[in-house]
Amino acid sequence: MLEINRLSFQYGKNRILNNISFKITAGTMIAVLGPNGSGKTTLLRCIASFLKPQTGTIFLHGEKIESLSPEKRAKRIAYMSQHTEVSGLTVFDAVLLGRKPYTNWQPAAEDLEKVERILHRLNLADKVLRPIDRLSGGEMQKVSLARILVQEAGLLLLDEPTSALDLKNRVEILSLLRRFVHEHQLIGLLSIHDLNDALRFTDRLLLLKDGNVFADEQPETLTDTVVESVYGLPVELHKTTTAKFIIPH
What we know:
The longest helix has 17 residues, at 167-183. This protein is of the alpha/beta class. Helix 4 packs across helix 5 (137-150). The chain has helices at residues 40-47, 70-76, 91-96, 109-121, 137-150, 167-183, 195-201, 224-231, and strands at 2-11, 14-24, 28-33, 55-60, 63-64, 77-80, 155-159, 187-191, 204-209, 212-217, 235-239, 244-248. The strands form 3 sheets. It has a 6-stranded mixed β-sheet with strand order 6-7-8-3-9-10, with helices on both faces. The chain has a 4-stranded antiparallel β-sheet with strand order 2-1-4-5, with helices on one face. The chain is globular and about 55 Å long. It has one domain (2-248): P-loop containing nucleotide triphosphate hydrolases (Rossmann fold, 3-Layer(aba) Sandwich), CATH 3.40.50. The chain has 8 helices and 12 strands.
């Protein structure tokens, strides 16, 4: 379980997060939603220990995240940022970096096999020797996702993992993520802008507004009133036999 208790963070006098509290059980994928500047990325970066909150505690399976050694943290928490630094690495080597917490000097045969498997699952097997600086934005995003999945951490933190993907790849990636989280009993926390993707592929919706948790909903309980209050935009909520979707006015 991931447990956030009264988490607050500010840059100087600018309060970004204000007494955030929520819990996530294993096997759950939760979308962090809200307008630009609502604190989505800051929340993920605090959980990943890249930022130190002014107040509050973060527990992962009963242990304070801040008390974990860097080695333990690297095995338990995988973070995918919006922007990936480009270098001369090949696709295979970039994904292999996800196995770094488990290797000393040389990766074992098991590490190489795991990289190969995840590359196949993300349809990247034909690009293993391509330098990552020659990839499209969408391909680079899939490489970043492959790296965190091969890390085999129990907590996945993903900051806008589908922002550069076309419709087909968005559906493919979010379906794969949800399946990974459910099958391996992981905790998935992803910031995302597309409410319809969140409604279709995630188990819970955490809606932030002005640094506060405005609503914590399941997709089936989300109302148009909540969406309008968070985004300041009138919307209509519709249901089909298989899904709920939002149409802005």
